[in-house]
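INFO  loader      accepted 1 record
INFO  loader      residues=108
INFO  predictor   begin
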Amino acid sequence: MAPLIPAALQRIQHQLCASNCPYGDIFMVPNRGRSIEVPDFDDPGESRMVAQLKAATCDLCDAEGDRSAPKPQCVASCPHEAASRVTGPELLQLVTNRSGRAGESNLL
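INFO  predictor   done
INFO  writer      dumping tokens
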């Protein structure tokens, strides 16, 4: 049996983006076909399976509803630059550039 607490903590941490979004545009939805085992706090020592959640966002419009904005409002308003929208090739380029630099973080 897999460790229960790390999965439960991971599930909680992933929901922080949704609860902290100032626009209410990020919400958690079940990731179909995926579930995780978590402690059953009503029955100590037991566990239960719950749907794994994933973050879903709005339709990428900005606050005025103009899709021609340089970036989505959720990305523009994130104070920690934790949200971003990139294409697959852009992500690959970011990872390639960052992984080749000694002494720098490999985080995006």
